[in-house]
Amino acid sequence: MRILVVGGGGREHALCWAIAGSPLCDALYCAPGNAGIARDAECVDIGAEDVDGLLAFAVDNAIDLVVIGPEAPLVLGLADRLDAAGIRAFGPGAGAAMLEGSKGFMKDLCARHGIPTAGYGRFTDAEAAKAYIREQGAPIVVKADGLAAGKGVTVAQTVDEALAAVDEAMTDNAFGDAGAELVIEEFLVGEELSFFALTDGENVLPLAGAQDHKAVGEGDTGPNTGGMGAYSPAPSLTPELEAEVMETIVLPTVRGMAADGTPYLGVLYAGLMLTADGPKLLEYNVRFGDPECQVLMMRLRSDIVPALVAACDGALKNFDLRWSDDAAMTVVLAARGYPGSYEKGTEIRGLDAAEATGAMVFHAGTKADGDRILANGGRVLNVTATGTTIADAQQGAYAAVDAIDWPDGFCRRDIGWRAVGS
Ligand code: AMP
Ligand code: GLY
User: Fold this and answer.
1) What is the Å distance from ligand 1's center to 202 Cα?
2) 210-248 b/e with 16+ CB inside 10 Å = b?
3) pLDDT score at 148
């Protein structure tokens, strides 16, 4: 098969690495890719949101399967365009991608189908939003409706903070059009868990669990990021909890989307809060988590390509995937300053030494300059190791981190602390 992966982050590097190892893969391209992805795939200089360019490339190069990594091209309808051209696209169409593209859409779906989630209101008027906040009191959560690169959520401890978040989105337009509508919701207490499932629109195959760390600082403090590290399995995901999440959240969603005429195909990523009243849905993402995908791919023992094809072809019934019993952990190395402003173009050394420890270094934001590897983003490297326990994987990941010579980067030193107990 001739396969194109869309995106250029650590998630796409992990996908390319897994796909390149498949005997079914005859040619692998990645658009736009990065310096690490170039080891596994031929990088093509087309942006991940250039829907016309990607479609033309897929048609011209007789691509059999397009695996769409990030949410933006899904929300823009890339999967629909490929589908119309007769090319298999792994990822939902624009209608189903609304599960991530509009938090209000997701909440209304939950309300219609009795899916447990925080109580909420939807607002396009700032005064009405503020009145609702005053009536509900704090803590309370204010969310931009649309895609805001992980930045549109304010967990407000006071009413004043929540009112300020309304002004930020609606008066200051901090999130552009994404903040023209707000979802304001009940504050939930509990442990968070990421749950992933593959679906072909009807059949659902749960994947392994993973846990990420969104906050930039140690002890899960400071501003939220796209994710500073992750590990799998997630100790809190027991078989009983998995069955409950499937029964109460994932299956009603997949059935509801099909009944509404927008069947959901691809990977469904449920952000959950494990509350005293059971698991509740915080958010849906319509793609693999980044960096959760990196640890899932390290633990996957089956060929991923038949699973991706089965999802596209409505053939996931009775499909099975094998996972390693080993744990995997990834630590994100980010450019100093991230998630605020940071420099690009600083040189990274010691990548071979890091991999010589047995770890995998997935590239999230790098570019090559001759033989040199330069930082080219906020999250730059995902240093990933396996071990018989999460503690072993953690030790392996940090040993590899310590072999990397990049004075302009930083990482959290405590990824996995909840699981390892340090
Ligand atoms: P989201 O992008 O919707 O997952 O929100 C980002 C983060 O905000 C989540 O990972 C949670 O830590 C937090 N959060 C979102 N919604 C709630 C809620 N209803 N209650 C408590 N925390 C929340
Ligand atoms: N790691 C969080 C995300 O991919 O949204």
Assistant:
1) 28
2) bbbbbbbeeebeeeebbbbbbbbbbebbeeebbeebbeb
3) 85
Say how far apart CA 364 and CA 10 lie, in whole Å. 4
* pLDDT of 136 higher than 70: yes
Measure 106 CA to ligand 1 centroid, in angstroms. Answer: 14
Ligand having the closest approach to the CA of 147: 1
- Residue 421: pLDDT band (50, 70, 90) is confident
Q: Does the beta carbon of 153 lie inside 6 Å of ligand 1?
A: yes
DSSP string, 202-236: S-EEE---BEE--EEETTTEEEE-S-SEEEES-TT
> How many angstroms separate the alpha carbon of residue 102 from the centre of ligand 1?
15
- Evaluate whether residue 420 is within a structural domain: no
- List the residue whose alpha carbon is closest to atom 4 of ligand 2: 289
Look up the domain containing 157 and give its range.
125-180
How far is Cα 314 from Cα 265, in angstroms, rounded to an integer? 9
pTM, 2 dp:
0.95
Instruction: Answer yes or no: do 285 and 355 share one domain.
Output: no
**Per-residue pLDDT, 73:** 97
Q: Which ligand is nearest to the CA of 275?
A: 1
Q: Does pLDDT of 76 surpass 60?
A: yes
* CATH number of the CATH domain containing 280: 3.30.470.20
Q: According to the 3-state scheme, what is the secondary structure of 313-340?
A: CCCCCCCCCCECCCEEEEEEEEECCCCC
- How confident is the model over 395-402, as a mean pLDDT? 98
Residue 102 included in any domain: no
Among 216, 273, 286, name the best residue to mutate to test ligand 1's pocket (greatest count of ligand atoms within 8 A of Cβ). 273
Asked if the model's pLDDT at residue 207 lies above 80, the reply is yes
Number of separate domains in the chain: 4
Length of the chain: 422
How far does residue 56's CA lie from ligand 2's centre (Å)? 29
Is residue 151 scored above 80 in pLDDT? Answer: no
Q: What is the pLDDT of residue 248?
A: 97
> What does the pLDDT read at residue 422?
53
Specify whether 341 is located in the same domain as 398. yes
